[in-house]
Structure formats: structure tokens, C-alpha cells
Amino acid sequence: MKKSDLPTKICPVCQRPFAWRKKWRDCWDEVRYCSERCRRNRNKTADEVLR
What we know:
With 51 residues, the chain is an alpha+beta fold.
């Protein structure tokens, strides 16, 4: 399967799209952030994160 065929979501912190990963196979519906860094910075605005 090509990466372009995988489902994607938009990260609410950095506003970037991210694709399904095999480690998220069982919990894709609960995944909200593209990375641990975005999950830790979830309470900050996007402007603060991009600085």
C-alpha cells in the first residue's frame, strides 16, 4: 500500500497533515496529534509553537 493511499488527519497544534501509522492500527480513532512534541504543546497556540 502506498503512503498516499493511507488515511490522514490534520494535527490541531501544528496544522499539518499526518498519515496513519502501523503502531496506531488499534487506536487510529483516538489519535489526535502528529507527534509527542505536539501532544506536549497542545495547550499552546500554533503561533507559539512555530517560534
